[in-house]
Amino acid sequence: MISKIEQLVYVVLGVGVVVLIALPFMPKLPSSWGGRPCAAVALAPDREVAGALSPAGCRLSQALPGQTDNSVCALYSLTLAAPSLVTIDLRSTDFDAHLTLLDARRTPIATDDDGGEARNARIVRPLEAGAYLILAKALGGGHGRFTVRAGLTPGGPGGGSPPGGGTARVCPLADLPLNQPVSARLDASDCRVNQILGGGTDQAYADQYRLTVPARGTLTIDMRSDDVDSFLILMDSSRNPLARDDDGGEGRNSRITQTVAPGTYIVIANSYGGQSQGAYTLQAAFAP
C-alpha cells in the first residue's frame, strides 16, 4: 500500500511494459520561489544591520519587475519622515557589493558598485520625505555576509552638510520658466555644488533650478556671465546627471543642448574652477 505522502508515477519502458514507481510527495516550494515580489525588511535610519545572501533567498528577477537576472539579493525598506541627505553603505568581505536605490514603485533611482572603500558600495542621495527600497546584491552573483546602513542628514533635495561639517542646510530650488531669461548672482551665501549633488569635492558656489517641459523636444540652456566662467549641469527629476558644459556658448559662457522627454528637470548654475562670485543670466529655450 502506498502512503498518502507518496505519489505514483507510471513509466513506460517498452511496448506493453509498465512499471509503477512510488516517489515521495514533492514539498511545496518556498514562497520566495513563486515569482511574487520579495518582502522588504524595514531598515531603521542610522543603524547598521547584518545580513547574508544565500541560495534560498530572494532573487533579483522577483524583486524588480522585468528583470531577468536571477542573482540572489536582499531587499530593505526605508521611510523618511522629512527631506534628508541619505548615505547608504553596503559592506562585505565575501563579495563585491552592489546597491540599488528604488522608489516605492520599485523604479530604480540610483545604483552603485564600488562607491565605498575597496569593493564596498555607497549611494549618497538627497531625497524627499517618503518610502524607498534598498536592494543589496553581489556583483556578478555570489553569496556571503554583509552589513547595510542608511545614514541620514536632515535637509531637502540639494541639501547637505557644508564643507568641513557643521549644521545641515537646505539649498533653495527656484523655478526656471521656459523661454524667459532669469538674472541672478553667485556669492558666498549660496550652496556649494557638492551640497546640491549630495557628494563630491566641487565647492563652487551654485544655484539650482527646476524646469518642466511639456512634450518631447530639444532643450537649450544658456548661462551667460561677464564675471565668472559659467558652468552648467543638467539632471533628470531623480537627479541623475544628463549633461555638463563649460564653454559650449560664446566665450566663457556655457550651453547645453539636449533632446528630452516630457517631464521635470534640474539645472545647476555654477562656475568652473573655483569659488567665483558674480552676476549671470540663465535661460532655457524649448522647441517641441
**Main sheet specs:** 6 strands, mixed
Overall mean pLDDT: 81
What is the approximate shape?
A: elongated
Helix count, per DSSP?
2
* CATH architectural arrangement of the largest domain: Sandwich
Number of domains: 2
Order of helices and strands: EEEEEHEEEEEEEEEEHEEEEEEE
Our Rg estimate from Cα atoms comes to: 26 Å
| Computed structural class | mainly beta
Strand content: over 45%
What's the CATH class of the largest domain, please? Mainly Beta
Instruction: Count all strands and give the number.
Output: 22
Ranges where pLDDT stays below 50 over 5 or more residues in a row are 1-36, 159-168
The CATH topology of the largest domain corresponds to Jelly Rolls
Helix content: under 10%
How far is the first residue's CA from the last residue's CA? Answer: 77 Å
Multimeric state = single chain
Write structural notes for this entry.
This protein is mainly β and 288 residues long. It has 2 domains: 38-154, Jelly Rolls (Sandwich); 173-287, Jelly Rolls. Helices cover 3% and strands 51% of the residues. The chain is built from 2 helices and 22 strands. It has helices spanning 60-63, 193-197; strands spanning 6-14, 17-24, 41-42, 49-53, 58-59, 72-80, 84-91, 97-103, 108-112, 121-127, 130-138, 144-154, 173-175, 182-186, 191-192, 205-213, 217-224, 230-236, 241-245, 254-260, 263-271, 278-287. Strands 3, 5, 6, 8, 9 and 11 form a 6-stranded mixed beta sheet that branches. Strands 13, 15, 16, 18, 19 and 21 form a 6-stranded mixed beta sheet that branches. Strands 4-12-7-10 form a 4-stranded antiparallel beta sheet, with no helix packed on it. The longest helix is centred in the last third of the chain and has 5 residues, at 193-197. The radius of gyration is 26 Å and the shape is elongated. The termini are far apart.
